[in-house]
């Protein structure tokens, strides 16, 4: 499942990335195996996740390129 498909309030583990921005995601703490909580999600606009107590906003395009699994 893609991160963009996860429901608000759900916990997921990052499995894989698509695209060239994966180094940037690793730099902000979103590496393979990271457990994140989907905090906020609107029809338009960014998707907000929480990892290690920090909230991070991702654009929809990025969230569609992050493969996750529910935990």
Task: Please render the helix and strand layout as text.
Blueprint: E1 11-17, H1 22-27, E2 35-41, E3 47-51, E4 54-58, H2 60-63, E5 66-70
Antiparallel strand pairs: 1-2, 1-5, 2-3, 3-4
- Overall mean pLDDT: 91
Q: Strand share of the residues?
A: 35-45%
What is the CATH architecture descriptor? Roll
E-strand count:
5
- The count of helical stretches stands at 2
The level of helicity is 10-25%
Summary?
This protein is mostly beta strands and 71 residues long. Helices cover 14% and strands 41% of the residues.
Identify the notable features of this structure and list them briefly.
SH3 type barrels, five-stranded antiparallel β-sheet, 71 residues, single chain, mainly beta, 41% strand
Task: Give a structural overview.
This protein is mostly beta strands and 71 residues long. The chain has one domain: Ferrous iron transport protein A (FeoA) (SH3 type barrels, Roll), CATH 2.30.30.90. 14% of the residues lie in helices and 41% in strands. It contains two helices and five strands; from the N terminus they run βαβββαβ. It has helices at residues 22-27, 60-63; strands at 11-17, 35-41, 47-51, 54-58, 66-70. It has a five-stranded antiparallel β-sheet with strand order 4-3-2-1-5. A hairpin with a 2-residue loop joins β3 (47-51) and β4 (54-58). The longest helix is centred in the middle third of the chain and has 6 residues, at 22-27. The model has no long low-confidence stretch (mean pLDDT 91).
């Amino acid at each position: 499942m893609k991160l963009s498909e996860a429901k608000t309030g759900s916990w997921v583990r990052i499995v894989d990335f698509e695209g060239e921005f994966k180094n940037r995601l690793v730099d902000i703490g979103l590496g393979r195996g990271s457990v994140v909580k989907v905090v906020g999600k609107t029809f338009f606009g960014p998707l907000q996740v929480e990892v290690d107590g920090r909230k991070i906003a991702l654009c929809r395009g990025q969230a569609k390129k992050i493969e996750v699994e529910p935990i």
